[in-house]
Amino acid sequence: MGNCRVSLIPLLIVPLTASIFIEAQKQADYQQQLQEQKEQRRLTQKREQQQAYIRQQQQLEQQRKEAEAYAAAEIIARIRLQQEQQLQQQQRLQQSLDMQTAMKSLNQMNQVQSQFFADLYGLNDFGYSGHLGYTMTPIRSPYSGQCNCPYDTFYYNGQQRICGDNSAYVRTGGREPVCFVGE
User: Fold this and answer.
1) Under a CB-based contact definition with an 8 Å cutoff, are residues 153 and 144 in contact?
2) Is beta strand 153-156 parallel, antiparallel or unpaired with respect to 135-136?
3) Which of the residues in the chain have pLDDT under 70?
4) What residues are paired with 160 via a beta bridge?
5) How many CB atoms lie within 10 A of CB 130?
6) Residue 143 exposed, middle or buried by CB count within 10 Å (0-12, 13-18, 19+)
7) Which end of the chain is more exposed for a tag (fewer CB within 10 A), N or C?
8) Which of 107, 106, 126 is nearest to 180 (CA)?
């Protein structure tokens, strides 16, 4: 009778663990879509600003030529000052675009790295795929902050990471926590 109770626990944990991983993946995908849409709107706005800047530059160049024709030195100086200010503004705008592009690239690299480590350590939607080639079912949900089991998580530079080979379960010479059903 006592063994019956113990064997029901894995049946309850596996669907719960799977649904937690699936729900987390859906949430991450939704957040990524929102971020990409926001980034696309931001880039479109920056392009429109650049086009408006080009039109202004063309108008200013035309005004400068007219002023030179009439020898209005004061008008020319004022227009050149405006051109310099707009050039500085354009440089700041370009730096901002470059920074946004770099941040987007870093985000993409981080997602690829996270997926690589999840694949490397065998984490999937249903549990931890052990080194023996069969799927091992976690005995509990992942904890955050303490790396007892490979599927536990910790925060590094503000981002959640999977413990994997840094866990006490994998390392030798220390604690030997029970992490998977049947151990």
Assistant:
1) yes
2) unpaired
3) 1-18, 71-72, 110, 114-135
4) 155
5) 13
6) middle
7) N
8) 126
Query: Quick one: three-class SS letters along 26-49?
Result: HHHHHHHHHHHHHHHHHHHHHHHH
| Token pair 């994997």 in the structure block, residue | 164
- The Cβ of residue 79 has, within 10 Å, a number of other Cβ atoms equal to 21
Question: In DSSP terms, which residues pair with 124 in a beta bridge?
Answer: 127
| Residue carrying the six token digits 């029970």 | 178
- Locate 113 and state its tokens: 């790295």
Q: Which pair of tokens denotes residue 84? A: 């310099």
Distance CA 44, CA 47 (A): 5
Strand order in the sheet with 123-124: 123-124, 127-129, 135-136
For the chain, the residue count is 183
Residue 129 phi/psi, 5-degree rounding, is -90, 110
Token pair of 135, please?
């799927």
Beta bridge partners of 127: 124
CB atoms within 10 A of CB 77: 11
Q: Bridge partners of 156?
A: 159
pLDDT of 55-72, one tens digit each? 989 998 888 888 777 766
